[in-house]
User: Fold this.
Amino acid sequence: MSITQSSQSLFTATEDEKEGTFNARYSLWIREALDELPHSFTITDPFISGHPIVFASPGFLKMTGYSLQEVIGRNGRAFQGPKTNRRSIMEIREAIREERPVQVSLLNYRKSGSPFWMLFHMIPVFGDDDGRVIHFVAVQVPISGQKMRNGSGVRGDVSGLSELVFGSCRREVCLGSYVHQDRSLPVECDEQELENWEHCEASESEKLKSAEAVNSVLAVLTRYSEFAGRLVCGKRNCLRGADCLSSSLVISLGRIKQSFVLTNPCLPDMPIVYASDAFLTLTGYKRHEVLGQNCRFLSGVDTDSAVLYEMKECILKGQPCTVQILNYSNRKDKSTFWNLLHISPVRNASGKTAYFVGVQMEASCRDSESKDLRPETRQLSVVGAVRVAVRSSFMVTC
Amino acid sequence: MLKIKRVPTVVSNYQKDEAADEPVGCGRNCLGACCLNGARLPLYACKKLENPGTGEKIVIGCEAREPPVAFLESLVLGEWEDRFQRGLFRYDVTACETKVIPGKYGFVAQLNEGRHLKKRPTEFRVDKVLQSFDGNKFNFTKVGQEELLFQFEAGEDCEAQFFPCMPLDADNSPSVVAINVSPIEYGHVLLIPRVLDCLPQRIDHKSLLLALHMAAEAANPYFRLGYNSLGAFATINHLHFQAYYLAVPFPIEKAPSKKMITTVSGVKISELLSYPVRSLLFEGGSSMQDLSDTVSDACVCLQKNNIPFNILISDCGRQIFLMPQCYAEKQALGEVSPEVLETQVNPAVWEISGHMVLKRKEDYEGASEENAWRLLAEASLSEERFKEVNALIFEAIGCSNQEEELEGILVQQQHNPSGSLNRTHGGRITNGTASECLVLQ
Assistant:
């Protein structure tokens, strides 16, 4: 009786949707324009479940040895490996969560499995009109590795702690302040050594290169976004609207594979502010059709009004409830289905209710095999995951 | 004998005042022999741990996509939410205001007036890290079964297995995951290894490995496990770990570190720099078992030497922080500053990691990185004592061999401002100076 990982492919956005949103934002010629840039870079979309790569430059493909199809749709983590510094990974994760730039040296792995050090420089790209993060742009500049340092974490006063590796010696030997960091000593290191370096500091010129590359990419995106009618920029020009979720919250919610929505009780008519991919598959609607709408579009002629009343009461009282309600889908057959719906208020870090979560379960799915979680538990696990995500997302220091 | 008075945290609805009489008979559906017969609980058997250092690109938790919510996470969250809605917790932790304090480290402060009862404080002995299990005191065989979420064991298969309805059988020596009815955060649970064996609160190799399994299996870097030894603010002398979700980095995880030594099994041991509590960081190892065993050896050494400590398991079990501390001893000797004492914050593992639960509104409103630092610094061993303790640990985990190779080479204390040789003890060079050796060639 073993557990199989839930199949992800059913519930992720289709290739068309991914392509479509990227092109729509920047116009059809964007890929051609980006392809002309010499730099190695990737563009990721935090609003697609899994925060995948939606564009990879020819420079990136050349550097890593992958083909375009092998890269699109994967998360940046795919290029990390067991010897990639955990602290650096955390720094990147936190920069994404806080929607700010980051520049950090990172050990990556090519398709062949060989490791290489590069300077990873990532910036968020904001929508000019709504202040939310549209994409993250990540540039990779290979580092020659003339200088190495011990230690990791918050960049502080690590002066005097430089180290050098001699030959194939695995133990690092401290030389203290006797060796200046600027002196570039030729270090012959095979690939095994690369993995053992604690850290690999980028030179000033390499850092400049990454900044140039980032600016080039941003310039192209800005120009083409203007063609498409909705400008993007490197800085947040206005506060994110109340109906817009932070990209970090969206990334967290994207990990939940079941059907659910978040509604905002503080906005007029309590609209949907988030809908999972599974919800769209279940109901047959497109994302843009449901965002901003109240959930009542799922009800129809034969939906029991007493049940609707019960739901309304619970929402007013701020209590969770589970109801069985007849819903009308927008699938090809326009079929109805019995929805075992669970609703609960969700608080943010201030302790006040920020959203309501609604978790849908098609009643016919209730008879799942005994080897899995009970459907009720699975439904509640969505609520729990949403609670953790919402509470923590508001704790971001901006 | 050193004692302090504090109000113990209530982790179970069946925990009573020590002075109260034990009720005769039961009917509370506990884990005692009276109620165990016929008890059933889901069982999660996690998969065999893989070796992180094999060069495979796909590592635990390191998937091509942002990993979906893992099965174990769903189980923990789903069962926790169920108990939450059934009203088993003493308060709604999500209604407690929380914030990240501005500053370099981002300490997390929470205003929680309901966590600590306004009761008469109980006396705790704080000078003995090893104390025998006392069946008369509250222990986890007395919790109600509704507070248990599932059984958890280290499986033998390459895939995890789940059995929704498994009997609780004393012969199997089950380990269980229970709720903490006074949660610090959503999802706060207790991992109780071999609950029916009634082990006292002390680290052993098998139990720490089980805790690591759980961290790895949850596959979420924001799900950490923590441990408090006796004398380091463990309330209950029955072996248990704690765990919960907090999707922000802990300050201790951000602290820079400097490598001290690598063991023969590849475990890298570093010391934290620029953090209020002097701590060690263990990571790497040719297998997770190696990492676990090294840390266990270190803990056993501390326990033998009566040094209280806390453990934080972080980054899906890849990083383990070991924090020796002396706050309780200082408190018993009257050496803690009054302002710090007034906050009534006991620096246990979560506090030392940077998550502070504050009882008074004024402390919450005025929370700052300086205050947090000052409080935690009271718990830290002095630099000198920390070096002594490290020497003990290195010897215990068999690192003295590596240090001996450095004998005979000029040793210069790097951080000593006067620049002179500074050895705190005579005798072997290996006593505590390994971390700051400069070798001139």
Summary: Chain A has two domains: 11-143+202-233, 247-392.
